[in-house]
Amino acid sequence: MHNNVLNYLNSIVKVCPDKLAFSDGEKGLTFSEVYGLSRSVGTFLAREGVYKKPVVVFMRKSPREVAAFFGVVSGGCFYVPIDEEMPAGRIQLILDNVLSPIVICDEDTIDAASAFDLKGGRAVLFSEAASCEADDAVLSAIYDKAIDIDPIYIVFTSGSTGVPKGVAACHRSVIDYVEQLSETLGFNENTVFGNQSPLYFDACLKELYPTLKFGATTYLIPKKNFSMPVQLVEYLNAHKINTICWVVSALTMVSAFDTFSVVKPEYLHTVAFGSEVFPVKQFKIWRNALPNASFTNLYGPTEGTGMCCFYHVDKDPVEGEPIPIGRPFPNREILLLTDDGKLCGEGETGEICIRANSVTLGYYNDPERTAQVFVQNPLNSAYPEIIYKTGDLGRYNPDGELIYVSRRDYQIKHMGHRVELGEIEVNVNMLPGIKLAASIYDAERKKIVLYYVGDQSEKELTELLKEKLPRYMLPNRLFKLDNMPFTANGKIDRVTLKNRYFNK
Predict the structure, then answer these.
(1) What span, in angstroms and rounded, lies between the C-alpha atoms of 63 and 19?
(2) Which 3 state secondary structure label does DSSP give 76?
(3) pLDDT score at 423
(4) For residues 463-502, b (16+ Cβ closer than 10 Å) or e, as one string?
(5) Residue 449: which of 479, 417, 429, 483 has the closest Cα?
(6) What angle do CA 272, 427, 343 make, to 5 degrees?
(7) b/e string for 265-295 if b means 16 or more Cβ within 10 A?
(8) Confidence class for position 210, pLDDT limits 50, 70, 90
(9) Distance from C-alpha of 178 to C-alpha of 193, rounded to nearest angstrom
(10) With 60 as the cut, is the pLDDT of residue 316 above it?
(11) More confident residue, 417 or 232
């Protein structure tokens, strides 16, 4: 039985030491190199007296950053990834929260890191840590003391108050996730991943740890490619990438701009997507371009260690209906609860709550916000049992498949009616000529605001929507954009849209 994620690396390095493990397309590391670098970093931390502490990894996205993550775990610590593209204020808040004694940097980031208040910690170069000679006795002693509820990483999500929340995940939750996800999507030693997400999000778990488990290969696709769809697909072909697990916005950016009329992915056979609702119109473009590929919708929050539900799209989705998020992975249960903590009735919308050992440890150094959403199962009063309240609303369709409805904070009361902003977006995205759409709500003025990228003028789109939506769901203001803003993880940046509207 696995109780440490390093078991994957320790095993696979004996099977295929010289195989390429991680690459950005120019520089790469074999499994043997990842193993050696991680053990050197782990030994360095031990000699610095750093054990069971958060260790910030402040590096450019690269194979060496991945090796640094595993090195932190080898040293019995847990990594906290941050990146220069984060706002400086957010970085400082993270540093204030974790109080890391060591900040591992590369040559490109050490000056930037040193400019922050490191709270008594010190910045060191990865090359310095990686040049330390591995001490087998020290590393073995650390490994032997590890148990599966020890944390591996802290990744920070946005807090509603503007203060980021550090989600702490442990070996047990990550191993369970890797095992279930790998079986669901059919990863193996021939899998070649194309990673889209930044390494400071948990989304990269889908590639990093299965790569170790199977001896697969992951390409860390440079961010610049995601603003040039043709170049992005050419990158996939050049490296024979056959498996992608991307946010929906990254996929629609390719399909909405007629990329497949120029070039198609030649090797892709597994496409997984999540984090947002995939517009059916855009999904069908992908399906038509790759008729022999498998497509899987994934759902899950960071607090549940990645994804917890899946739906293999094995039939044509119905226009106007979102693609289901399906059923939970094995060893998980989804509780759909009413506001008073009861199970929802048939067809009733409720909050999606997760019951599983994949539920993370909570928010680091933040007991108050942890207690708000990591709660006692209201259906069980006999013994302690923590579930996670996602804040997402869902319902079951007649086939017993879970449907994502919206975020709780996307549900509004408008003109006396309960309105899901996501439902408006689904209807807009169905229209010909619409590439992307996002809606926000101005609660003070009681106005629904729609931003979109498409061919229609604002007046033309207004007339089209009058034929599709009831009056109380019609946007009060429409704004046509040349480009939709995205977060670093590739999701539509609704905060930027709100700021743009309220600063007009």
Answers:
(1) 14
(2) coil
(3) 75
(4) ebbeeebeeebbbebbeebeebebbebbbbbbeebeebbe
(5) 479
(6) 65
(7) beebebbbbbbbbbbbbbbebbbebbeebbb
(8) very high
(9) 14
(10) yes
(11) 232
Tokens describing residue 194: 């194309």
Percent of the chain with pLDDT over 70: 97
Q: How confident is the model at residue 472 (pLDDT cuts 50, 70, 90)?
A: confident
Residue with tokens 């579930």: 387
Round to whole Å and give the CA distance between 382 and 84: 47
160: pLDDT strictly greater than 60: no
Residue 362 vs residue 249, higher pLDDT: 362
The phi, psi pair for 202, rounded to 5°, reads -70, -15
Per DSSP, the chain holds a count of helices (H) and strands (E) of 16, 26
Work out the average pLDDT over 155-169: 80
List, in sequence order, every residue forming a beta bridge with 441; answer none if it has no partner. 448
Paired sense of beta strands 362-363 and 374-376, if any: unpaired
- Do the beta carbons of residue 327 and residue 401 sit within 8 Å? yes
Q: What are phi and psi of 231, to 5 degrees?
A: -65, -35
Read off the pTM: 0.86
pLDDT at 495: 82
Alpha-carbon separation of residue 237 from 219, 300, 309 (angstroms): 12, 29, 29
Cβ–Cβ < 8 Å for 95, 56: yes
Phi, psi of 20, rounded to the nearest 5 degrees: -65, 125
> Among candidates 227, 226, 180, which has minimal Cα distance to 206?
180
Fill in the amino acid letter for 465: L
| Residue 1: per-residue pLDDT | 59
